[in-house]
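Researcher: Here's a chain I'd like modeled. Treat it as a single chain, no partners, no ligands.
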Amino acid sequence: MANHITILVSCLIFTFTNITLIFAQWSECNNGIFSKDAVWCFAINGNNTYTGISSGPLGISGSLFMTTNNGDSWTLKNKGLSKKRESAILSLAINGNNIFAGSIRLGVYLSTDEGENWVQKSNGLPYYANGDTSYIPDIFSLKFVGNNIFAGTNIGVYLSTDNGDNWIPRNNGLFQIDSFNSVYSITNIGHNIFAGARYGVYMTSDNGENWLVKNNGLGNIEVLSLEVNENIIYAGTYFGLFQSTDNGDNWKNIGFEDYNISTIIIRGNNIILCSYGGGVYLSTDNGVSWTPKNSGLPSLEVDLLIINGDYIFAGVDNYGIYRAKLSDLGITDVKEQEQKNEIKIEPNPASDEFRLKFHSPIETTVQLSIFDLLGNCVLSQALQSTEGTNEKNINCEKLPQGYYYVKININEFVQTFPLVFVE
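Model: Modeled as a single isolated chain. Structure tokens:
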């Protein structure tokens, strides 16, 4: 009789386990990735998904992988990247055909051929002493604002206006407590740029020339991630999730006080975040309530998330990459949000004219306005657009050299970009 009971219990456990696996939301997708220690970063370029993975065999540390089939298989893309064991890829940013990778101690790399080849782009990044050795700063975050790229490092912020050829420091007001202030995340609302740092949140409205502390209600706690939903800013910290509805002037905690929030993704009314120790959570009501989405994950120690098409990818500490279908998590209205971001201005800096490239969902009139730093509108044009991709040349030869902001209104969707005019 005891044997029959044992067999029955075993069958029930086996059946339950397999049913759980069948209906799991997440599944492993590490084919081709030889190390699962830690997933440092993700980036999307069309159908390509890129990831930086921590150290693996053969002395390869800065390992970068790419998938073109939603994670069914990954290919190593390391040609030109350092193979020193201390040099992992911490951050990625993509603008057109340019893919930038930020590393530990060796600065920034650039690829213009989908990651096939990489060249170092660290001119202007300083060396700092660590004991008896000098290193280039660790690049924790990379962010394009218009065609300018900001690098958040372990010794502040650096800016490149020439596609990474040169970097200049942008740290005035950023060092409030000691000489080092690590910057983990950068985002923007129009011309206001926010940095999530070791000692809270900072904002600049002049392209990084000056930074203001924005910590009221937040305190000097480490801010790991920043994300914007229209005019609402979310900050993921070591002590939960915070929200600001007034451009960072005031913050309030909206949950997860016991977790550090390393990634926040917003799509429409959906907010997806991951926490180290709490796993993945989804809110479909702008953060009022939250539901865990962890079925199938081998651990709740989730480091980061990214969405590409119909899939969401998660980097799980010591387990590599897992993926889920957005529909299985209950996430909708993603593609429309992604499509809205296709606005580019080039060249920047510009002289006599610049080219505006944008996507319009319908045939409509697009309003372009250029403002100086005092908020005066110095140029305004109504542009006729067709459905799909549009390119317009904007003549600006009468404007004096200096810093400006370009505001684009496409069918009530508004974005603002910094622009520099030179002689």
